[in-house]
TrEMBL record:
Hydrolase among keywords: yes
Residue stretches making up the Penicillin-binding protein transpeptidase domain: 298-509
Organism per entry: Thetidibacter halocola
GO biological process, one term: proteolysis
Domain named Penicillin-binding C-terminal: residues: 588-667
Alphabetized InterPro entries for the sequence: Beta-lactam/transpept-like (IPR012338), Glyco_trans_51 (IPR001264), Glycosyltr_51/Transpeptidase (IPR050396), Lysozyme-like_dom_sf (IPR023346), PBP_1c (IPR011815), PBP_C (IPR009647), PBP_transglycosylase (IPR036950), PCN-bd_Tpept (IPR001460)
Alphabetized Pfam families for the sequence: BiPBP_C (PF06832), Transgly (PF00912), Transpeptidase (PF00905)
Protein family membership: In the N-terminal section; belongs to the glycosyltransferase 51 family.
Catalytic activity: [GlcNAc-(1->4)-Mur2Ac(oyl-L-Ala-gamma-D-Glu-L-Lys-D-Ala-D-Ala)](n)-di-trans,octa-cis-undecaprenyl diphosphate + beta-D-GlcNAc-(1->4)-Mur2Ac(oyl-L-Ala-gamma-D-Glu-L-Lys-D-Ala-D-Ala)-di-trans,octa-cis-undecaprenyl diphosphate = [GlcNAc-(1->4)-Mur2Ac(oyl-L-Ala-gamma-D-Glu-L-Lys-D-Ala-D-Ala)](n+1)-di-trans,octa-cis-undecaprenyl diphosphate + di-trans,octa-cis-undecaprenyl diphosphate + H(+)
Protein name: peptidoglycan glycosyltransferase
Glycosyl transferase family domain residues: 57-224
Gene this protein is translated from: pbpC
NCBIfam families (alphabetical): PBP_1c (TIGR02073)
Superkingdom of the organism of origin: Bacteria
Enzyme class name: transferase
């Protein structure tokens, strides 16, 4: 009896010692890195994937959280791969005994005993498991993983790194590439395919071995019926579903902005973009530029002018195009803005009491030192309302206003609006208001967003985070006047009726850039067309090329028409005759002795003479400029009596402009 008791004690001690040694052996197991590198990804304002990146070795491996996985997939995975997963401690003795018995009985391996935890161990170490020492290492690591991780965490690691063929790893990458969708909602057939692929990822990948992939999927479906996960009718219907024929492209929306965000670091980036709108605008730009000169590029930005959030940003028609330098993000390229700064100049003039939309301003030849501005069409129109001068985008009136205010004040307003204008040389000159400064498309959209927001700057931004409003650039009244003037421009053919969109076009010097900027009640947008290398595009005009795209972009952004804002209470709404005297004509207070044409009298009928028609003046400051129907006939005239080579026969309007900007005008008939 004593010997038997002693033997029992020794046996128990040996078992306990062996167990303790086993525990120490398992606890001493060095764990490999459990968190694998995942590719950076860009998400839109609602969490939708805009663009994803591979990890450094070119593998598609994306971050995956538990709430991104359809519970059906998890149930099917456990039922197919390791139905006692939640009961064992990393090694399933029942499965091991069954596999051993089947191997002895059949003389070959019939079924494996590898648990999901052991598969995770093998994937983490990426080592051989065919030899006994490799299998032993796998068992040891599996037991260690079970002590360090929970069951859901082990499943999470498996779904993050399981191989799915080619350069695809992890459930999420596999679902996007093989199914074209996130794994949050899967059909039984889709879930079965994703369960089956990791067992033989290369021989079952659908793009190369479609039939093998389908057979493996159907085998999983059959097993799910026996496991009680699916009923037979559902499994039968799922077998009829078509297997994927090849790879789906990973989302590649907003590639330029995505690259810019990636430069700030890896991981997940939540952007303000709207994936649906981004896709629609990329398609619009691509179709609009199809068949055109491949050296041309195009860029579009759409933003919410209340918040400054960029909703869509298209840097070029084709990110991969080389001839048109599609890789260059033209939303951030410095270009000449052409006439698109004119609304700001007029708004500043309104706020400084220099002009009102009904103020008359002189459109006539004028010289500021060596600078002589010209209108785009070469025609001068004499006195015109400021409203009309802006709508016609006349150059001379806006330069007169710039000279009165000083170009430094215009430059200061650009900076207050949050822009970073680039100048070549020193101080800004009068050509600033005609595009003599470097700005980006994003800059201009931010400026026009300021106009749309009633004159208060709002920083344009693409990262999803609160941004404080900027400084006030213009008064609410001045901004409303600008919107009302620009909204009365005729829209491009088929783009709706006036009054819905306030917009301005522009063409830079030498036809290098075609612009269109504008806003409605909710959104502000900008379009640029040109060549990234800055070479001219003969015949390119902002109104012809860019304006139709502006209206289409705004149309795709708004779900419904949002009207422009009503006038603020302080707005001066009146006609020209009711304006204060100093606002009826720009520069009226500076005029002293008036300029008059004393001959020929207004309405006279004259006989055309080859030598010309005699003209006599009174008052004014020489030198004088002579125009007929807005076209310059002579400049630098210093005498108050001269012969004018007027065309004839017919009716003509004769205008004379002096050095101070005063004018005299008569209408005559030549016979």
């Amino acid at each position: 009896m004593t010997r038997a008791l002693l033997a029992l004690v020794v046996a128990l001690w040996s078992v306990a010692a062996g167990r303790d040694a086993l525990d120490r052996w398992i606890d001493a197991t060095p764990l490999p890195v459990l968190v694998q590198e995942t590719g950076a990804e860009m998400r839109d304002r609602n969490g939708a994937l805009l663009r994803a990146y591979t990890v450094d070795d070119g593998i598609w491996r994306l971050a995956l959280s538990a709430d991104q996985v359809d519970p059906l997939f998890t149930r099917m995975l456990v039922a197919y791969e390791d139905r006692r997963f939640f009961d064992h401690t990393g090694v399933d003795p029942v499965a091991a005994l069954r596999a051993g018995w089947q191997a002895l009985r059949h003389g070959r391996v019939v079924s494996g005993a590898s648990t999901l935890t052991m598969q995770v161990a093998r994937l983490l170490e990426d080592g051989p498991t065919g030899e006994w020492h490799g299998k032993l290492r796998q068992v040891r690591l599996a037991l260690a993983l079970e002590r360090r991780l929970s069951k859901p965490e082990i499943l999470q690691v498996y779904m993050a790194i399981a191989p799915y063929g080619g350069n695809v790893e992890g459930l999420r990458s596999a679902s996007l590439i093989w199914l074209g969708k996130e794994p949050r909602r899967l059909t039984p057939a889709e879930a079965a395919l994703l369960v089956a692929l990791p067992q033989a990822p290369e021989s079952r990948r659908p793009d190369r071995h479609l039939q093998a992939a389908r057979i493996a999927r159907d085998r999983v479906l059959d097993r799910m019926v026996r496991a009680g996960i699916l009923d037979s009718e559902t499994a039968l219907a799922s077998r009829r579903d078509a297997a994927p024929l090849g790879r789906h492209p990973m989302p590649q929306l907003a590639p330029h902005l995505a690259d810019f965000a990636l430069a700030e670091g890896p991981g997940r980036h939540d952007l303000t973009l709207d994936a649906g709108l981004q896709a629609r605008l990329e398609d619009l730009v691509r179709r609009h530029m199809a068949g055109r000169d491949p050296r041309l590029s195009m860029a579009v930005v759409v933003a919410d002018h209340a918040t400054g959030e960029i909703l869509a940003s298209v840097g070029s028609p084709d990110y991969a195009a080389t001839q048109g330098q599609g890789f260059v993000d033209m939303t951030r390229a410095l270009r000449s803005p052409g006439s698109t700064l004119k609304p700001l100049v007029y708004g500043l003039a309104f706020d400084r009491g220099l002009a009102h939309p009904e103020t008359l301003i002189l459109d006539a030849p004028v010289q500021f030192g060596s600078y002589t501005p010209q209108n785009f069409d070469g025609v001068f129109r004499g006195e015109v309302p400021v409203r009309e001068a802006l709508q016609l985008s006349l150059n001379v009136p806006v330069v007169r206003l710039t000279a009165q205010m000083g170009p430094a004040n215009v430059m200061a307003a650009l900076r207050v609006a949050g822009l970073e204008p680039a100048l070549q040389g020193g101080a800004p000159g009068l050509a600033l208001s005609l595009g003599g400064v470097g700005l980006t498309l994003e800059d201009l959209v931010q400026l026009y967003g300021t106009l749309a927001r009633g004159g208060q700057a709002v920083p344009l931004h693409w990262r999803k985070q609160p941004v404080a409003p900027g400084a006030r650039v213009l008064s609410s009244a001045a901004s409303w006047h600008l919107g009302q003037i620009l909204s009365q421009l005729p829209p491009p053919p088929g783009a709706g009726r006036p009054g819905q969109v306030a917009y301005k076009t522009g063409t830079s010097y030498g036809h290098r850039d075609a612009w269109a900027l504008g806003w409605d009640g909710a959104h502000v947008a900008g379009v640029w067309i040109g060549r990234p290398d800055g070479t001219p595009v003969p015949g390119a005009f902002g109104g012809d090329l860019a304006a139709p795209l502006l209206f289409q972009a705004l149309g795709r952004a708004r779900g419904r028409d949002v009207p422009l804002a009503p006038p603020p209470p302080e707005t001066l709404l009146t006609g020209h005759a009711q304006l204060p005297a100093h606002l009826q004509r720009f520069g009226a207070a500076a005029q002293t002795e008036g300029l008059r044409v004393t001959f020929p009298p207004d309405g006279a009928a004259l006989i055309a003479d080859a030598a010309g028609v005699p003209v006599k003046l009174r008052g004014g400051v020489p030198p004088f400029t002579l125009l007929a129907d807005g076209r310059v006939l002579a400049t630098g005239l210093r005498d108050r009596a001269f012969l004018a080579p007027l065309p004839g026969p017919g009716f003509a309007t004769l205008s004379v402009i002096d050095a101070s900007g005063q004018s005299g005008r008569v209408s005559v008939e030549l016979r």
